Amino acid sequence: EPEVTQTPSHQVTQMGQEVILRCVPISNHLYFYWYRQILGQKVEFLVSFYNNEISEKSEIFDDQFSVERPDGSNFTLKIRSTKLEDSAMYFCASSEATGTEEKLFFGSGTQLSVL
Amino acid sequence: AQKITQTQPGMFVQEKEAVTLDCTYDTSDQSYGLFWYKQPSSGEMIFLIYQGSYDEQNATEGRYSLNFQKARKSANLVISASQLGDSAMYFCAMREAPNTGNQFYFGTGTSLTVIP
Questions:
Q1: CA–CA separation, A91 vs B56, rounded Å?
Q2: Which of B44, B92, B105 to mutate to test the interface with A (most CBs of A within 10 A)?
Q3: What's the CA dihedral at A38, B49, B78, B107 to 10 degrees?
Q4: In this predicted model, what pLDDT tens digit does every residue of A72-109 receive, in sequence order?
């Protein structure tokens, strides 16, 4: 089955540094998402992306965050100046369409640790 | 109000027994989808089963079935014949009618431990 791939699987960074999390969605999917999960807590929506622009973003997705689809395959999440509270598992997801029956295909996640 | 509520933070089940994980949802939409995902300790999110709001029959996928009670707004996951590999976090999620964001709403999850 096709899958969403994320790199790196683990990222350790110093507070205040910039990080870029990378994702390759499933090739025929048009809708892309980032979610995050702080250890032991619920999965939280960050942002959705379609047609090269943000469709919706949550309150978490402030000016420190940005997303980009630099080419036809990659989808990146950039955190400009990381904070301790950004430590979390970050999941990329994609879907083919937006019907209520459309499941999200998740990547394996990037565990971000901010020191 | 929470869109998805999972009231069981942790559950234990004996191997080979069945277990029900509870999920209630809140929406005023007529069209919505309900999903269950499994998250093993390795961290990935694995899709298990889907139920559409208009589906009259409960969804089944192998050992997984979804007990859908629309009037009560509940979508409980039933795992039959539990196996040790079923030990994981289980998340209930909902997708409402297409909107600009098309986001999923997740519950807080239930940690299931299967006891040999």
A1: 32
A2: B44
A3: 30
A4: 789 999 999 999 999 999 999 999 888 888 899 999 99
